[in-house]
Amino acid sequence: MDLVFHDAEVVDGTGGPSYRADVAVDGGRIAAIVKEGAAAGCQRPTARRVVDAEGLVLSPGFIDMHAHSDLALLRDPDHSAKAAQGVTLEVLGQDGLSYAPVDDRTLAEVRKAITGWNGSGDDIDFDWRTVGEYLDRLDRGIAVNAAYLIPQGTVRMYAVGWDDRPATEAELDHMRRLVAEGMEQGAVGMSSGLTYTPGMYAKDAELTELCKVVAGYGGYYCPHHRSYGAGALEAYQEMVTLTREAGCALHLAHATMNFGVNEGRAPELLALLDEALDGGADISLDTYPYTPGCTTLVAVLPSWASEGGPEAVLARLRDDATAERIRHHLEVIGSDGCHGVPMDWDTIEVSGVSEAALTDWVGRRVDGWESARRLLLEDRLGTTILQHVGHEENVRTIMRHRVHTGGSDGILQGLKPHPRAYGTFPRYLGRYVRELGVLSLEECVAHLTSRPAARLRLPDRGVVREGHIADLVLFDPETVGAGATYESPRTLPTGIPHVLVNGEFVVEDGKRTSALAGRSVRRAR
At the N or C end, where does the chain have fewer CB atoms within 10 A? Predict the structure, then answer.
């Protein structure tokens, strides 16, 4: 054998009780599992490399169901932000905005639109245009595995542009073709960002038609829906109704209830989902174990202010009369970009800027509209923010649900990113399992492994089982925890000495190796 873990406490991802065993890996797969007390004559496996796992837990690798590493995987081969957490697979193309499928015009526009998420991309060779070509680029070697969702906002940008209007029948046909081609090339589903332009300009009928295409390929729809604040429950119900009409599986992105209007209302969301699930709906969701959100500052503007694309936004911000109208929508009416809730500037903390001259802003709260306006103009919309609008009670309630999975929503850009980018998975294990007992260890591992693997239709990942791909994590249940904090958000976790991706060590003895063992994980055919 290539490798054997001796005397590991195996938490296999099914949610069942743990057991003590030797686990052998050979040729990138789990070759043998010999449980303690196995029948006489069953020999312990031997290997070229033996790891003493006494006192440690061996589990499947964690699957990040909501990642923003679309360019980070290419620019940073180390990618310890995720590898050190035990993440062995990330799902990219989130929130309706990413870099395939595109033509030259769309690529230039989307790069500007999500500079705050992923940087400008000036350091990236964008030698792809289609979904398949992007996945091929990943296959040249990345730190961890990656699956991809077709971004509906990018598709609309490509076929319709930045206009707030219904698509013509010809444009809708073009979008259907782009989605079908992306699914055929290996995407696992489609995402939307329905508080981000231009994806939010799509009405339900348009989204339903695209979801029908996704459903035809066995994929799922992953919406950042139209509100996490005022009207949140109605927005969740809208997505449930839409996908049931389309016959499409639904995975709710960073599914939480934020802002003061939703404090303590998580049970209402779960009741809505339980009713749909009991009626036969195919639904799952992901969350991160923190209360603040993270997005770009431009995203909180009203949708009409973003029509026409980034340059049109900047022009509106320069015009005093239009800027005053934007302020009124933000502070008095409640912008649709800010989930229908009037802006409380005290909740907005700058986490990253694109212009080096503006770094003094990082870590500061925005003290009003004029400061926000100036920052948007001087940073050319590249500012990233933390939005302190969540509720711990809601976070804990939702993570207990039967269809819950883990997703970091990790934006790696900026000097002071949200600590969820570096800490989500060890924080689940350390704070919410060991310290608070919100979940048992076996439950929590299932949430982070087999449940997402089932949603992604990956029959040989997500469980410690003979014949399965050896995406594995060895961690110390007594010390595992997030090192990342709001003050030091890039600190790596503790208590995770070994991580294997496709049978290769990407973390060994607590240190990142040079292995680029990850590959694209494409839709099951």
Answer: C
Residue whose structure tokens are 């303590």: 264
Q: Is 21 a member of any domain? A: no
Q: Which two tokens stand for residue 343?
A: 């802006």
Tell me whether strands 19-26 and 3-10 are parallel, antiparallel or unpaired: antiparallel
Pairing of strands 384-387, 504-508: unpaired
* CA-based nearest residue to 114, from 93, 134, 132: 93
Residues 255/355, Cβ–Cβ less than 8 Å = no
Percent of the chain with pLDDT over 70: 99
Which residues form the domain of 86?
61-294+389-460
- The per-residue pLDDT for 43 is 81
Containing 361, the helix (H) or strand (E) segment is none
> Does the pLDDT value for residue 39 go beyond 90?
no
Mean pLDDT of 447-470: 98
Cα distance between residue 25 and residue 23, in whole Å: 7
Cα distance between residue 131 and residue 207, in whole Å: 20
Specify whether the CB–CB gap between 330 and 342 falls below 8 A: yes
Angle at 114 between CA 112 and CA 117, to 5 degrees: 140
Residue type, 33: I
Report if residue 456 sits inside a domain.
Answer: yes
Contact assessment for residue 506 and residue 132, using Cβ atoms and an 8 Å cutoff: no
What 8-state DSSP symbol labels residue 492?
Answer: P
Smallest Cα–Cα separation from 196: which of 231, 258, 152?
A: 152
Q: Which two tokens stand for residue 356?
A: 């080096």
CA-based angle 213:216:218, to the nearest 5? 115
Residue 426 is assigned to a structural domain of this protein: yes
pLDDT number for residue 41: 62
Residues 230 and 358 in one domain: no
Burial of residue 483 (number of CB atoms within 10 Å: 0-12, 13-18, 19+):
buried
pLDDT band per the 50, 70, 90 thresholds, residue 40:
low
Rounded average pLDDT over 364-383? 96
What the block records as the tokens of 281 is 């709906």
Per residue in 141-192, pLDDT (tens digit) is 999 999 999 999 999 999 999 999 999 999 999 999 999 999 999 999 999 9
Residue type, 445: V
State the Cα–Cα distance between residues 162 and 193, nearest whole angstrom. Answer: 14
> Is the pLDDT at 295 greater than 80, yes or no?
yes
Res. 42 pLDDT band, cuts 50 70 90: confident
Which residues make Cβ contacts (< 8 Å) with residue 205, sequence separation at least 6?
none
Q: Is residue 525 pLDDT above 80, yes or no?
A: no
pLDDT tens per residue, range 52-70? 999 999 999 999 999 999 9
Quote the tokens at residue 183: 């699914």
Residues 135-159 as b or e (16 or more Cβ within 10 Å = b):
bebbeeebbbbbbbbbbbbbbbbbb
Overall domain count for the chain: 2
- Name which of 281, 256, 261 is nearest 398 in CA terms: 256
Residue 264 lies in a domain: yes
- Under 8 Å between Cβ of 251 and 284: yes
